[in-house]
Design brief:
Length: 59
């Protein structure tokens, strides 16, 4: 599974999230703490066509 790498909506820094830090809220939604500001960030997993392995957009 590709790790979600994107800018934190709170501090704006790029987040590299460890697998073990990720909490699955449902099959499409993950939650993890920002490694910089420790805010809980929620991400929708996009599993449609060419974007399946691409960047994850905030919902
Ligand atoms: Zn942050």
């Amino acid at each position: 599974m590709p790790l979600p790498v994107s800018g934190c909506p709170y501090c704006g820094k790029l987040m590299w999230v460890k697998d073990e830090a990720i909490e699955w809220l449902d099959p499409q939604t993950i939650r993890f703490p920002c490694p910089h500001c420790h805010a809980l960030v929620r991400r929708k997993m996009v599993n449609v066509g060419a974007t399946a392995a691409g960047p994850i957009k905030p919902s």
